[in-house]
Write a structure and sequence with these properties.
The longest helix is centred in the last third of the chain and has 14 residues, at 209-222. The chain has twelve helices and six strands. It is of the alpha/beta class. Helix content is 52%, strand content 12%. Helix 3 packs parallel to helix 4 (93-104), helix 4 (93-104) packs parallel to helix 5 and helix 9 (183-194) crosses helix 12. The protein has a six-stranded parallel sheet with strand order 2-1-3-4-5-6, with helices on both faces. It has two domains: 14-162, 3-Layer(aba) Sandwich (Rossmann fold), CATH 3.40.50; 173-242, Orthogonal Bundle (Arc Repressor Mutant, subunit A).
Length: 244
């Protein structure tokens, strides 16, 4: 919390943005209206260029939390990409503003970017509803396809939690209901919390999609989730994982 705000992570986006991969992403992803809230001008413009190349519309930019709230109200975005620590206090200003946007404009998804692994900020943002929330380390932007995939999942109402944050939560927040899960079920739940689809989980764990579906159903039953549609139960499972 005491980190000097002048300490910056500057991402050189150009070398990793390959025209072919970004164009392919643009071909399969519907365009989104995005606002970018980041006080580092180089990173802000780099993100804007990446998103434009992928076919998305950057409808607003903000350099501080106050400007972010104004742009969220006036630009009608689908998604806000927000730095955690922003002016004026360089503390949790971005998180506070993003939480306010989620309360007042629930249709706007939020993807937080941060230099630091701070699960408390992510939990503050979720506040009982993990739909349309992402929380990633800024270094993840270097993997363009992974970043664009996370952005699309969040905008569609899914989740995208950084694996580093998930790992900390797993180690530090063991709970009775989660302890009922076996090792494979916990592994699958961690990947669900990251926002992975069943197909992606199957590929990661070298399982069939059918096997992942069976494990997911076992997780839902052990967590005593209502017999609702699977998308909703995935969100509820993430909330159970987060301890909400």
């Amino acid at each position: 919390m005491g980190t000097d705000h002048r300490e910056r992570v500057t991402l050189t986006l150009a070398p990793v943005v390959h025209a072919g991969s970004v164009q392919a992403a643009a071909d399969v992803r519907p365009p989104l209206r995005v606002i970018i809230a980041e006080d580092d001008a180089l990173l802000r413009e780099g993100l804007a260029s990446l998103l434009r190349d992928a076919g998305h519309d950057v409808v607003g930019r903000a350099a501080d939390a106050t400007e972010l709230l104004l742009k969220a109200r006036s630009c009608a975005p689908d998604l806000a990409i927000v730095d955690v620590r922003m002016p004026p206090r360089y503390a949790d200003d971005g998180v506070v503003a993003a939480a306010q946007i989620r309360r007042s404009q629930p249709s706007v998804a939020v993807l937080m970017l941060t230099q630091h692994v701070e699960p408390a900020y992510m939990l503050q943002l979720v506040d009982g509803d993990a739909r349309g929330v992402g929380y990633l380390l800024k270094d993840r932007v270097r993997d363009v396809e992974e970043f664009l995939d996370a952005l699309t999942r969040v905008a569609a109402g899914g989740t995208a939690l950084d694996p580093a944050v998930v790992s900390i939560l797993v180690e530090g927040r063991r709970r009775r209901r989660l302890d009922e899960l076996n090792a494979r079920e916990r592994q699958v739940l961690e990947l669900i919390a990251e926002g992975r689809s069943n197909r992606a989980i199957a590929s990661r764990l070298f399982l069939s999609s059918r096997a992942v579906e069976r494990v997911s159903q076992a997780i839902f039953e052990k967590l005593r989730l209502p017999n609702d549609d699977d998308d909703n139960r995935r969100v509820l499972a993430v909330l159970a994982f987060l301890g909400r």
